[in-house]
Design brief:
232 residues; alpha+beta; Cytidine Deaminase, domain 2; 6-stranded mixed beta sheet; 8 helices
Length: 232
């Protein structure tokens, strides 16, 4: 019986603190949680395969060209994977995202199934992204598979990781999100995501929470509940 009283007192004390305003530390933790959730929602991608424009696929310039497009961000990686499906050489796509849409797309062909020299510099891509007012740059390239029954080519090489880390750092410094994907047999696999601090800035969420915090015991309880029990 004594143990039961202790448990009841502990539960009462626990819930009583949930009617108090959040501390500064808790406010920041909740702001980070909300931001993480919004970023996850923004970059949620459709995984089903798409029927693509075969004429566009046939006319993709192997020497490199920037195309004006209008595709949903959520659907674009699957569209890109479909465009790169069955390609015998490696191809690179650099997609520029604004307002959850891909509005410009750079495409070029590598020299073989294993070599993909970058025909335009990162500085040029960053300059294009800033000119277009883009929030994100998506890098997609395919890994041709000579024997799909024996090999799985969905993993990035050391070179892929190294260059993408370098690109991500420079993009983030310029306020641009960076995401990298490998495409194989019509599917895409995201292997890097680096989000700029300027995208959905933390201050925006801090302001929202500070406005709600301490408004009433009801608001305080809901903020505590969101912090401790809601998945981001």
């Amino acid at each position: 019986m004594y143990v039961l009283y202790i448990v009841i007192i502990f539960i009462a004390l626990f819930f009583s603190t949930k009617f108090l305003p959040l501390t500064k530390r808790q406010i920041k933790a909740l702001a980070n949680k909300r931001r993480k959730g919004e970023i996850k929602k923004y970059f949620t991608f459709e995984t089903r395969q798409f029927v693509i424009n075969k004429e566009f696929k046939r006319k993709m310039n192997p020497a490199g060209e920037m195309y004006k497009v209008r595709e949903s961000l959520g659907m674009f990686p699957s569209i890109a994977a479909a465009l790169l499906k069955a390609k015998k050489h490696e191809w690179l796509m650099v997609a520029f995202e604004k307002d959850a849409h891909i509005e410009h797309l750079w495409v070029h062909k590598g020299v073989s199934a294993e070599k993909l020299p970058i025909l335009s510099s990162l500085d040029d891509f960053v300059k294009s992204a800033r000119t277009y007012g883009c929030s994100s740059m998506l890098i997609l390239h395919n890994h041709p598979n000579i024997d799909p029954h024996r090999y799985l080519c969905i993993f990035p090489s050391d070179g892929d990781i190294s260059i993408c880390k370098e690109w991500a750092e420079i993009c983030n410094e310029n306020g641009i999100n960076f995401l990298a994907f490998i495409c194989e047999r019509g599917h895409f696999y995201e292997f890097m995501r680096s989000i700029s601090d300027r995208f959905l800035p933390l201050e925006m969420f801090l302001d929202e929470i500070n406005f709600q915090n301490g408004k009433s015991v009801f608001h305080n309880f809901n903020l505590h509940k969101e912090l401790f029990f809601t998945k981001s």
